[in-house]
Request: fold
Amino acid sequence: MPVDLDTAWDFFSSPLNLAEITPKDMTFDVTSPNMEKTKMYPGMIITYKVSPLLGIKLDWMTEITHVVDRKYFVDEQRFGPFAFWHHQHHFSQIENGILMQDILHYAIGYGPIGKIANAVTVHKKIHSIFDFRFKKVEELFGKLP
Reply:
């Protein structure tokens, strides 16, 4: 992103901005109260309503487990559609801007049925969400030269 580290961190460390970079068809809503001016901190619990497939609303709860200011933060699912969810967000200064990298580890669960669901639907859906986010971040912040 062709922005400074403070700008990138301020945007991505606000839980409410997650809805802005999530596809609208997922109807992603933060349901945690009093999040308007809250920045992430270790131990922070965030609740959501999300419709990842077929418009079915699901509850999702994540915990921010690690935060190193202006370097990275980690969210982990505590309750929701996955058996396991560990998502790292890393920020580093590069020439002309910021490099943001996501590292995601997840598991569906449900044995062989979950493996089939992941191969047929879930893996593709997750990739489409991150493709959308990439484009949305470029729209919001611009492209590096």
Observations:
- The domain at 5-141 is CATH 3.30.530.20 (Alpha-D-Glucose-1,6-Bisphosphate; Chain A, domain 4).
